[in-house]
């Protein structure tokens, strides 16, 4: 789960990382009342999960109520790289002497945590990495050994920040590592980390991604932050039903048992000229409930014109799957025809069950390729 900036700052604040006082606002009036509370000047910040908000006009300084009204009005509803702004974060404006970059993330190839610190902050770190890689001081942290203060001190020295900032940076980096580890984050990033004219260091932006697989260890954090996660609606519905679903933008719905087969199914639909509407792994033991749930999720997708069910029975028995499909068809009012390929354990029995219900709404095919072709033809995917 990716947090919005304001959530990331609330998360940082729990760990003692200094952030500016502020509040969220969903309307212009709310923005004014937050600004009145924190005191002018304030910064009005679009809350969308995409970088470069500043350049896109989603971050504005406001010196008084009139300017808050003007900027909040302009930013709410604004489109930033395909993300609509529904919420603002209003915070007390900071004076900036210098802008730095700091982050921790996972380096999978090294099997260690990677810390990055740069005196060149406030800009795209990818750009710094490409044009001036030496400007990024990196450390790799053995997850078992952890990170000690002496190491952080060396690291900060290597980054050549303004020496005034060193002490504050060390403190913040230790806290940043702590919240990265304790929350099972996959990324914590502060860009910019600023030095103020009076020598304080603090986080002006926050990017936090939490590991979905560790959710059960952090129920409180997830409950607090999850509400506003802008998940694909289809994905949310599937997630609530315990399905492995990824929304795509084509017209052929896909249900398969096993992630490998589901991926192959996506491939073969592409190969015969169609476009998959989703990836959906129904898992092992695909019973009527699983099938009905999977079909209902795909059925909500308005782009879907055909649904390709691709089952290879191993432990899963095809006759059970066939019963599941029949029951699911009775329970869910499907908008698109089903094209079914059943193979493997008890395939004969399974096909016999489906044969009794064969129609233009339920088409059986003997193999994966012909099933894909039929599904794509029905979906009109072939140019
Ligand atoms: P991003 O563009 O989405 O990364 O949004 P940021 O929150 O990082 O803000 C972008 C830039 O706006 C920062 O690098 C700063 O230069 C500027 N900015 C943000 N907040 C303040 C502030 O409180 N005071 C000043 N002077 N500039 C700010
Ligand atoms: Mn930023």
- The CATH architecture classification of the largest domain is 3-Layer(aba) Sandwich
Q: Report on the biggest sheet.
A: 6 strands, antiparallel
Work out the count of structural domains: 3
**C-alpha termini separation:** 37 Å
Structural class: alpha+beta
Q: Going by CATH, what is the homologous superfamily of the largest domain? A: Succinyl-CoA synthetase domains
| Average residue-wise pLDDT | 93
Secondary structure tally, helices: 13
At the third CATH level, what is the topology name of the largest domain? Rossmann fold
Structure characterization notes:
By secondary structure, the chain is of the alpha+beta class. It folds into three domains: 21-92, Dna Ligase, domain 1 (2-Layer Sandwich), CATH 3.30.1490; 98-223, D-amino Acid Aminotransferase, Chain A, domain 1 (2-Layer Sandwich); 233-378, Succinyl-CoA synthetase domains (Rossmann fold, 3-Layer(aba) Sandwich), CATH 3.40.50. Helix content is 38%, strand content 25%. It has helices at 5-14, 28-38, 65-75, 125-131, 149-158, 163-182, 219-225, 233-240, 259-271, 288-299, 318-331, 347-355, 368-379; strands at 22-25, 42-46, 59-62, 79-80, 83-84, 88-92, 98-107, 112-118, 136-141, 185-195, 201-203, 207-210, 244-247, 252-256, 278-281, 306-313, 338-344, 362-365. The strands form five sheets. Strands 7, 8, 9, 10, 11 and 12 form a six-stranded antiparallel beta sheet that branches. A four-stranded antiparallel beta sheet has the order 1-6-2-3, with helices on one face. Strands 14-16-17-18 form a four-stranded parallel beta sheet, with helices on both faces. Strand 17 (338-344), helix 12 and strand 18 form a beta-alpha-beta unit. Helix 10 (288-299) crosses helix 11 (318-331). The longest helix has 20 residues, at 163-182. The radius of gyration is 26 Å and the shape is elongated. It starts with a helix and ends with a helix. Guanosine-5'-diphosphate binds at residues 43, 51-54, 59, 93-94, 96, 99, 122, 191-192, 204-205.
